[in-house]
Amino acid sequence: MPDPPLLLAARRRPTPFTPVWLMRQAGRYLPEYRALRARHAFLELAKTPQTAAEVTLQPVERLGVDAAILFADILLIVEPLGVGLEFAKGEGPVIHRPVRSEADVARLAPVDVASAVGFVFETVRLVRRALPPHVPLIGFAGAPFTVASYVVEGGASRDYLATKRLMRETPNAWHRLMTLLADATAAYLNGQIAAGAAVVQLFDSWVGALAPDDYRTFVLPHTRAVIAALTPGTPVIHFGTGTAGLLPLLREAGGDVIGLDWRVDLDAGWRAVGEDVGVQGNLDPVALLSPPATFEPAVRSILRRAAGRPGHIFNLGHGVLESTPVEHVKALVDMVHELSAR
Ligand code: CP3
Q1: CB of residue 119 inside a 6 A radius of ligand 1
Q2: Residue 270 is part of which domain span?
């Protein structure tokens, strides 16, 4: 059996068609997910290996995507810090005791990953056993900046005021927090790889809020440390949004494949990161709210810009939105396979 297309593409090898998977392919737009959520809280679903494995497999069966992504969350790793993580109804994640000062950082103990998130590794093992052998499993974690932004702000943020103040006013505390998160994240990803994840994605979803010089000083060394500490031989996808002005720096931090959002043309983004890495993306998730005929030109444009070069993984520029019709998602996956067949 040849390697699965997604693994070949992640190594910039030719593939018979462009592999496709979707960020947030497991989630609330799927009726079978909503049915489970009606009975279980999000954290309960994520922490129970049987249900987390079931949710991971749901979109693989329904959509015919070229990879599964583990059902978990980037914030599971911060719960053991004792910051009071909660997924509140309708508001997204809330951290009840945000880390705002040097003293707050000093109180944080290093995370013992095996005991704190062992349930995630068990989910990976269950999924690996249940998946068809030709479908790789993508593991993931949040990159240190994006995770730190939740820990410092106490939840989602628009302007990242507390995060940027902490990094500028007490850089030593900032670097200590980022080092602690980077160490935990590397151990978390290596645990997923050991349990059977064939690829890992690092989500730096909100890093586009930073000036390039701030990224260089306050973020790049820590993201680079995570990627450098990963088990060799496992491809790494490094993703962020709003990164058009940061792409060469993301690439410098590391990754075999760089994720692009829809605010940049795929070919321009690929030039910015360099032709010696792969790219992933980059359809606007909102496009999927409209019927397939309306998003087909955008799909064709992305494939034309990739021009059949080895190293393109098709995806959205960010996650599937909750109000997306499932038939549109299925039509996208089929469309990418048909239009890219070589
Ligand atoms: O299908 C997949 O992509 C796998 C599962 C996955 C989840 N979260 C499940 C989830 C992944 C890869 C994530 C990553 C994640 N979590 C990120 C990075 C990706 C991104 O979207 O930028 C971030 C920033 C988070 C933090 C987070 N978790 C938020 C902001 C929210 C609430 C808002 C939202 O978009 O739903 C969550 C909760 C969450 N994580 C849900 C799911 C399916 C919804 C929970 C529910 O069912 O109510």
Answers
A1: no
A2: 5-340
